[in-house]
Structure formats: C-alpha cells, structure tokens
Amino acid sequence: MKNSAAQIPATPPLARRYAFKLLANVASVPLYLLMEAILPRALGPSMYGNYSFATNFFQQLSGFLDMGTSTCFYNALSRRQEETGLIGFYMRISLAVAAITLFVSLLVLVPPLGKLLMPDVPLWLAPPAALWAFLTWWGRVLRSMNDAGGVTVASEMARTATSLFSAALLICLFFGGYLNIGTLFAQQYLMLALTAWAYWIVTRRHWRAQERILHFRLDKEQCRSYRREFFSYSHPLFVQSLLSFFMLTAERWLLQWFDGSAQQGFFALSQKVSMACFLFVSAMTPLLMRELSIAWGRNDKEGMGRLLDRFAPPLYVVAAYFSCFTLAEGAAMSMLFGGEQFSAAIIPVQIMALYPLHQAYGQLAGAVFHAAGRTRVLRNMAALECCYGFAAAWFFLAPPHLMGMNLGATGLALKTVLAQCVTVNCYLYLASRFIPLSFGRNLAHQAWSLMFLLPPAFFCREITLGLGLGGADSLLRFCVSGMLYSALIAAVCCIFPRLLGMSRQDARELLARITRARKRS
User: Fold this and answer.
1) 12: which DSSP letter?
2) Residues 162 and 251 in one domain
3) Quick one: angle between helices 355-372 and 408-431, nearest 10?
4) Residues 264 and 398 in one domain
5) Residues 243 and 190 reside in one and the same domain
6) Are 53 and 261 in contact (CB under 8 A)?
7) Of 86, 258, 380, 410, which one has the fewest beta carbons inside 10 Å?
8) Which structural domain range is residue 106 located in?
C-alpha cells in the first residue's frame, strides 16, 4: 500500500499563495476600475443608485442567511481536508440560501411590500439583483474551498483569466452602445458563472490528484454530526447576522428614504472607490485566516500572536498607502470613476477613502474569533455596534426636524468610517485578552503611520498642481502625483522599516532574500 502522505502534494508556502492571490487581485484591478468608471457614466447617478441599493439589499440578505456557516465550513475544511462529506453537506445549505433569496425577491414584486423595502426603486430590479447576490456569495464559497485545500495558486490563476475576459466583454458593450441595466446583469451573470465553473474545475482536479471522492449522499449519523457542528459554531452568529443585516440595510434605506437615488449613487461610488483601495489587502486575509485556524487547532496561541504581529502592521500600511493618496486626490478619483455627473461625490469619496484602514485590521481581528470558535464575542459586538451605529446613522442622515444633520452621502460615509474605527479597536482589545497581541502597540501604529503617509500625499498633490500639469481632476497630474508619492513612501519605508512593523535586521534579511531570488532567476 502506498504511503498516503506521498500522494498529497505539498501545500505551497504562505508567501507564494499570497503572491498569487495578490497578483490575481492586481489583474482584477483593471476589471474593477473599468467597471466602476464605466457603470456610473452608462447608468447615471439615479439608476446607478438604484442598482447599488437593490444589489446591496440582497447581498446583505445572502450574508444574513449565511449566518457564519461559510466561515465554519472554511475552518472545518482547512483542518479536515480529507472530509469531502463536508462539501456535500454545505451544498445543501447553499441550495437553501438560493431558494430563500430568490423567494424574497419575488415577494418584493408585491407593490405594498416592495415600495416599503425599496422606496423609489423599480421593483423589477429585485429578482435579477437577488440572483446576482447569490452567485456572488456562492463564488466566495467556492473560492474559500480552494483556499482551505491549499490550491490557492491554481484558483487565482483561473480567477485572473475570467476577470480579464469579463473586462473585455464590458468594454465591448460600453463602446458598442449596448450597456444598460439589463445587459449589465447579463454580463455579471456570465462572469460569476464562469468564475464559479473555473473554481469547481480546480477543486475537482485537486480531489482527483488525492484520490478523493465527493460524497453528496450522507447517512443520518453524518448529517446529524454536521448539523451539530454547524449549529454549535453558527447559532451565536444568528443574532450577529440578523443585527448586521438590519444595520446595513437600514442605513442604506434611510439614505434612500431621506435623500433619494442620486445620493445613493454618490455613496455607492465612494464605497466602490474604497473597495478598490482594499483589493491589495484583501488577498491576504483569507490565507491568514486559514493559518490562524490551523494554529488554533494545534493550541498554538503564541503562533497566532506572531502571525498578527508579523502581518497586521504591513497590511495596515499598504491600505493606508492607497487610502491617504485617495483622500488627497478625491477630486481626481471622483472624476476618474464617475465623471462630471458625480462631482458632488468628492467629499464622500475622501471620507470613505479611510474605510480600508480599519477594514484590514477588522478582518484580521475577526479571523481570530472565527478561528477560535468564539462566535459569541462577535454576536455581542454586533449588538453593541447596532446601537451606536444606528444612532450615528440617524444623526447624520435624518433631517433637522427629526434631530439629524441631513448630510446625505457624506453623512453615511462619516458614520461608516467612525463606527468601524470603534468596532475594530474593540475587537483588537478583546483578541489581546486571550492571545499574545499588544493592543497598545497596534493602536499607536494606526495613528503614527498615518502621520508618515498622509502629509506626502497632500505634498505631491500641491507640487503637481504648482507645476501646472493640470487641474485637481487632471489625469496626467494625477498619474505624476501617484508616481512621486510612491517614490516618497518607498524611501520612507526604507529609512523607517518600523513603519511596516519590521526591525532593521528584518529589513536587511528581506533585502538579502530578494537579492538571492534575483540571482537565481
């Protein structure tokens, strides 16, 4: 009998998997930038706001129906990769999520209910938005399966190919004059379906290489065991999911109710710009979550602390690098993504530029609690955030006669950034109570790293304006400013490696490894 260990290909190291995941994210940036530059221009502020509101509503619904089960599935599969029965069981959960999401979309077509849930939004958008939301969620599940199995490299190569094809199709639709809300949904369905199919092919090849068989038919004892496992992990997250669904849909509903579709479109644009800043950081978080889950399974709390101390500061700085530049170049970003129709979105874009900062820390801190199975903490924090978050949303969005400031998209951007800053630092503090993680050092790093990154961004902006390269929204001036800013930040990181959470010795060792790699190539 052959040694089973010899049949299992070695999992690529974390650095290599991150590199491929980062490269895939970089390759998807053209698609993302094209889509977010094309859609506002093709749809206009009002229809773009309607599209964003409808898809956001059903995306939050899919997230609520998930109730943390996808994270439980990811953690369990990371630890027990030979159990393909887990996948068969989770497919049943996925079918339930699909059925309920599409059923709710049909209910929204009933005018009294639809007008209440989606004010001033065409109700026919509900079913296509619901299908889009489910396919997006299901794609993330399939991608997490490949990450859990350690086949990130092949998975991200497949995603890159489908992303580039989708970008080409979107360009053809736009310049051919065929891009509207209907063809947009068709293009999105094709992209999501191709991506899911590519993920599935990678998964099947991985199983065949390891001589594994997917078991869809599970006996009663297996189903009972999996139900207990998922219920034990996820039932505390039911309250968190319910509160998050209520909070995230309620604040967008308030914006729609008080200010209408145009302000919804301005906030949607600012949100998409902030997501573009986060693309380079999001590549690392699911991989770190896998490592944290494995470390917790070995009861290696020190290892979890080392992972966070090693990766959290540089990830925060990478996010801050993009965020600070976006804040300084708010006018150019608004013009680049939305065009002249979205000139009123400049301030929301500048505020939401700060959102990726704590999003990076938040995903890492949340990964600690997910990996450790301490989902009750997540539930309790969600309840607390719902209280101060909704109060802040009402204060910033409601009109003066209802004790609010009526700030529209700017108000919702302020609420989003401030609430996340409070929540994430609460997570970090609670995580530091049971793993060796310095809360004070990480809190200080958040503040002083911005002191190094924000002034150069404004300096480069003013220098390029003074050189007469164009106005604040000039693409040429924007590009020159970006290159100058990148050079300055690279110099700062070389002089002060502590900015990246590294000592000078760490920096020298990293430089030596890069030099050796270049010589080998």
Assistant:
1) P
2) no
3) 40
4) yes
5) no
6) yes
7) 380
8) 12-218
User: Are residues 451 and 383 part of one domain?
Assistant: yes
pLDDT of res. 414:
95
CA pair distance 245, 249, nearest whole angstrom = 6
Q: Quote the DSSP letter at residue 176.
A: T
Q: Which of 25, 62, 49 shows the shortest CA–CA distance to 141? A: 62
One domain for residues 103 and 132: yes
Question: If you compute the radius of gyration of the chain from its CA atoms, what whole number of angstroms results?
Answer: 23
Residue 229 lies in a domain: no
Instruction: Specify the pTM.
Output: 0.76
Where helices occur in 121-180 by DSSP H, the ranges are 126-148, 152-175
Q: Are residues 374 and 402 in the same domain?
A: yes
- The single residue listed with the structure tokens 């540089």 is 314
Token couple for 3: 């040694």
Indicate the burial class of 95 (C-beta count within 10 angstroms; 0-12, 13-18, 19 or more).
Answer: exposed
Of 442, 452, 463, which Cα lies nearest the Cα of 493?
Answer: 452
Residue count (the chain): 521
Q: Does one domain contain both 213 and 243? A: no
Distance linking the first and last C-alpha atoms of the chain: 39
pLDDT along the chain (521 residues), means of 10: 40 51 58 74 87 92 87 79 78 91 94 90 93 91 77 74 81 86 90 86 74 68 85 77 84 92 90 77 66 74 79 83 91 84 90 87 78 77 87 94 92 93 89 82 84 91 89 86 92 80 64 57 49
Using DSSP, state whether 472 is helix, strand or coil: coil
Per the CB < 8 A criterion, the answer to whether 272 and 60 are in contact is: no
